[in-house]
Amino acid sequence: MLNALSTGRAAPTIETVVVQPTPFCNINCRYCYLPDRNQKAKMELSVITTLFSKIFASGWSADQLTVIWHAGEPLVLPVSYYETALRAIEALRPPEVAVRHAIQTNGMLISPEWCALFKQWDVGVGVSIDGPQALHDANRVTRSGLGTFAQTIAGLRLLQREKVPFHVISVLSAESLQSPEAMLDFYLAEGVEDICFNVEESEGDHVSGLFAAADTPRRFREFLSRFWTLARQSGQVRFIREIDDMLERIFRPESCDMGNAQVEPFGMLNVACDGSVSSFSPELLGLKNAAYNDFIVGNILTDSLEAMLGGEAMTAMTRDIAAGVELCRQSCEYFSVCGGGAPVNKLSENGGFSSGATSFCKLTEMIPADLALAAFEQLERTMPAPEIGAARFAEGK
């Protein structure tokens, strides 16, 4: 819900906190957008405790608060770091707030000790793997240019053996868009049931030729349509984010959050390892922009959340993002399932927050919506009316 933007209500709802325990990453993906991935800084425990003390004291936390450890490779810090951090957050948590932790990793450093931590704290685990070895190693490389598939797949298989639930995020390249069959065969062979796709995009320091190519939407639509068809036929894929999230938003809006936290002030609170705070799209953290003070609205160690919310940088971003949301509302037929797009993509593609549709919108919202609706229309043509309601989600599950 576009709470602060559409109603003028002063108090935000913090739904997600993206925490950068370190900007450092142990690999050097060719499509990475993070500018500080060589820096070996670490978020101190005092930053973590101050952050969550202020969130919980504000009363702005959602009843279900998601904490994502991301924006670098979080597993380069030891297991003991997270044991201490998670215990500290739990000690601060008020009884009316449930906290769910999630972590996004390249999988190379997963060990039995990590698996024990994930299970103890019910941490949602996302593994970045781009499909079969040839596709993965084309872009996910070490600083010396060597592929990382062997280490990543070893980590993924350890999660399987230790019965740690996980999903994968695969960045789609020009080559993988040609290979839906090979991609699915790989996932099935490895027992992967939850799959998310990101088309290689232009963000931050990275400029993607694929993202700008005129035929990419057509190629992605063909890829996703074919992959979904094959996945349904296999009966072994539980979840395809692009399809299943869209099916929920179109046909069961009452069962999911229809808001867009990326356009809400403090809907997403993004915190760098030094305590610098940003909001809106988490990818803005670490990027440079003089007009918006590099997207930094304050520092959690020295500033109150209230002061940051009313500060100059936040006010300017909120104003311009709201203008972009309103433009989308007035001009885009997909607004009801999108809620105004991703500010970071509007900025990188269109040059400003106060703009409308992007290539990112086309790939992540419009094409999945079109495929979901086309599947439902096919059901309507081929199935007696009383059966349609019961079966319409079978296409996506």
UniProtKB/TrEMBL annotation:
Keywords: Iron, Iron-sulfur, Metal-binding, S-adenosyl-L-methionine
Annotated signal peptide: none
Pfam families referenced in this protein's UniProt entry, alphabetically: Radical_SAM
Entries under Gene3D superfamilies matching the protein: Aldolase class I
S-adenosyl-L-methionine as UniProt keyword: yes
Gene Ontology molecular function terms on file: iron-sulfur cluster binding; metal ion binding; oxidoreductase activity
Every Radical SAM core domain range: 9-233
Cofactor(s) this protein requires: [4Fe-4S] cluster
PANTHER family (alphabetical): ANAEROBIC SULFATASE-MATURATING ENZYME HOMOLOG ASLB-RELATED, RADICAL SAM DOMAIN PROTEIN
Protein name (Swiss-Prot/TrEMBL): Radical SAM domain protein
Originating species: Methylocella silvestris (strain DSM 15510 / CIP 108128 / LMG 27833 / NCIMB 13906 / BL2)
Source organism phylogeny: Bacteria, Pseudomonadati, Pseudomonadota, Alphaproteobacteria, Hyphomicrobiales
